[in-house]
Amino acid sequence: MTTTLRHRDRRPGRVRRALRATTLLAAVASMTAAIGACGLASGSTPPFTVGAGSIKNIPALDGVKVTVGSKEFTEQVILGYIIEFSLMAAGADVRDLTSIVGSRSTRDSQTQGQVDITYEYTGTGWINYLGNEKPIPDATKQFEAVRDEDLKKNDIVWTAVAPMDNTYALAASPEVIKSTGVKTLSEYGALVNKNPGAAQTCLETEFRSRQDGFPGVASTYGFPVTKAQVSILQTGIIYQATADASQCKFGEVFTTDGRIKALGLQLLTDDKQFFPHYNAAIVMREAYAKEHPDIAKVMTPVSDKLTNDVITDLNLQVDVQGKEPAEVARDWLVKEGFVSKESS
Fold first, then answer.
1. Could you list the residue ranges forming a coiled coil in this record (predicted)?
2. pLDDT, position 38
3. Which residues in the chain show pLDDT less than 70?
């Protein structure tokens, strides 16, 4: 996927968002059709080249072919480019396969050998891929558990875990919080049981069906899920729709999304600690990881710098300020001294 820089669009915000939503729908449909017809493409060249910084050329990685994948939402695309530029600085021959639609498609592309490396979340691995029902409250123990079980069952290596923890949450505008008195998920559940119409909630398709998503929230907090209560929207649209409170009284959000702060949204407290930890970690097939052990060495110091504050700011630069994910990822790596800026 080649990234091009956008000119500033001066049309009204709602018009721009509607146009972006239409474009995204078309792109998703096109990609889904392509995957169904012939599998994922082989990838493309990253949009920028970078030079060495603290990440120097590593002879063992010089010219090594590596295909980097990611899911399609902003944070994942940024993380994918962070891998790409880091390994490019180390000398690898990098192919870009970011923006794969959905967790399952991304996972399958890796287990089937189409993607060599991704950033994945520990909670997603533990619940969705390994089929466990209960998360582990301690973040370190959660990482160790998914690391050990995925290696044993699926020959998948988890390494270079980051401190960033992008879990799910429900959010609302301050006005909705004030009018409903709902500040916790227990209070949200009570509102649904009392008056479902007052708890109109916007979700993305995947969260609506995932066990670590809305079905699990409903089971834990004791409320039914009805069509009248739930609206399905694309992830990027939910934030503004929740801030406006015109279509969504409450909305599903990612806790490291920059739009939460930019739009003044408030997170409901997960008072029963339902949501797992979602620390991002480097994931590779075992055979590939053993063949190229220097990849983990390159990515570990990069992951160590990826805190919640850092990734939230990077997300904000894309979703609020309109910058390109590849540009944001590269500039952060340059700022941290990992790579040097060359040409675009």
1. none
2. 35
3. 1-42, 343-344
Give me the pLDDT at residue 92, please.
Answer: 98
81 plus 92 within the same structural domain: yes
CB within 8 Å of 194: residues ≥ 6 apart: none
Q: Label residues 75-111 b or e (16+ Cβ within 10 Å = b).
A: bbbbbbbbbbbbbbbbbbebbbbbbbbebebbbbbbe
Same domain, 151 and 297: yes
* Gap between the Cα atoms of 84 and 258, Å rounded: 23
Tens of pLDDT, residues 174-201: 999 999 999 999 999 999 999 999 999 9
Q: Are residues 159 and 308 in the same domain?
A: yes
Q: What is the pLDDT of residues 128-152, one digit of tens each?
A: 999 998 899 999 999 999 999 999 9
Distance of CA 83 to the CA centre of its chain: 14
β-strands 65-71, 93-100 pairing: parallel
Count of residues making up the chain? 344
The C-alpha angle 83, 72, 3, rounded to 5 degrees, equals 65
> Based on the domain organization, do 41 and 140 belong to the same domain?
yes
For 40-62, what is each residue's pLDDT tens digit?
Answer: 556 799 999 999 999 999 999 99
- What b/e string do you get for 212-238 counting C-beta neighbours within 10 Å, with b at 16 or more? bbbebbbebbebebeeebbbebbbbbb
- Distance (Å, rounded) from C-alpha 53 to C-alpha 86? 10
Residue with tokens 């110091």: 301
Pairing verdict, β 280-285 and 250-254: unpaired
The phi, psi pair for 49, rounded to 5°, reads: -110, 150
Cβ neighbour number for residue 63 with a 10 Å cutoff: 8
Per-residue pLDDT, 42 = 63
